[in-house]
Target: Outer dynein arm docking complex subunit 2
Amino acid sequence: MDNQEFSESQYAEEYSGKNNFCVVLFFFFLNKSKSSSDKFPKKGSEERKSRTVSLTTKKKASGKSKSVKIQEASKGKASVSFEDVSESSSETDEDEQPVRRQEGSTDLSAEYWGIQKLAKYVKGGDPTATLIALCSMRDFNLSEETCHKSTKNKKAIRKAGGIPLLARWLKCAHANILIPIVGTLQECASEPSYRLAIRTEGMIESLVKNLSSEHEELQRHCASAIFKCAEDEEIRDLVRKHEGLQPLSALLDKSENKQLLAAVTGAIWKCAISRENVLKFQEYKTVETLVTLLTDQPEEVLINVIGALGECCQEEENRGTIRRSGGIAPMVNLLTATNPALLVNVNKAVGGCAMEPENMAIIDSLDGVRLLWSLLKNPNPDVQASAAWALCPCIENAKNSGEMVRSFVGGLELIVNLLKSNDKEVLTSVCAAIANIAKDEENLAVMTDHGVVPLLSKLANTNNNKLRRHLAEAIAHCCMWGSNRVAFGDTKAVAPLARYLKAKDPLVHRATALALYQLSEDPNNCVIMHENGVVKLLLAMVGSTDDILQEAAAGCIANIRRLALATEKAKYG
Model:
């Protein structure tokens, strides 16, 4: 054993041996750096084999055995899962346990099998076997994906009670201990169970504290852990409570370290999902700094930067800040990217900025609307949906939006055909866009020719409230042309719409009442509505505090009542 291995062993013994080894092992399995593997190159397969045999001999001599499930799969493909360690009186039980298939399993190398054998001794061996196994593991490149990204390894750590141990060591003041601890946490934070544990074990405060460390690797791991954990609202609030937003903003100045920058911008992006955090970022001038990072950055950084700006520009003040900082042009330029994740974030950011007329004028002058429309052809449904959502504020705030939309050759046919999509978010966003486009009579006429009415009617039986809302809005606006009201009745859209009034979402009620009011201009539709019991439901909504809902409900009831009176008059004179 060389000097470094010996010194590490002594250090481990000093800190109560086995528990500390488990922590080191966790990090090895989840985030061992390439540099470490370079320092300790792989030995030949024969040397590893002999080491494993000697360890097995020691284990048998101790009279203890642990079961690890290993089985060879056909054609050299195999997978391994760590199971709860159980005491066994038979040596043969170890070799006859079945194996569950690991996600993304590929042909596994001999090194992989060696790691499993060594892990057995770390988990259940005596101190001597544990020491030797850990030292032997230094010969393996544990940054390989089969170890580094294994969901089962993460579950094994949790089942073995590793989370409280990690929480305890997170309070340590030594960077050489904190780096592997936080590195383990940030790898595991992709699992919801770990995020819950990180919140409940009070680890966020320690992560925030270490953002101010002088070690950039530790800062990177802390920011990355927050990036993954901040998917949860409670954790976003905790980061703000423990004053973690200011150090995150300050770390944006370290733009030369791209790995650190990617982690920090990712953490800012996820934290900005909460409005309270956005207001804090405004105080720290974070938006201005993010705008400077929109150019000459790797894709990983750009995705996070534009994602953060997309969240921040939901606030009116930040939309002006982005414009004054010169951020609109680089945003529009990113609409020509090819990375789907980047495009989704760019679409949201451009759409957010377009909510302000001054920004919209700049976007239009840079041909941004045409670029957004072209993204409707993208094969990725997420890109299609985000582009359609972004078009909504563009159409609302553009000068002479009707003419702008007509200038896109084949654009109206393209958006109508997207109603044939199987993706709910695409359908919802396209319905919202059609509702805006249909406000222009000429565009509505063109969409009618392309069959928008039957396509909208086919969607009417949905149970998705978000889709219901925007579908009802689209139907309401599409009723304004020709015989579309009659066509909606003929294509059986009225009865399903009547059922929307039973939903609990008030926004669905408003959109549905508007659609029913327009449809009630046709007598046959009034009969269908009456048969489906809309009058009683609409009567309750006449007393709503929402003026638009109140007016639409009253108008629909009035049309139904007028038809009933006309029928009675014709019948009885």
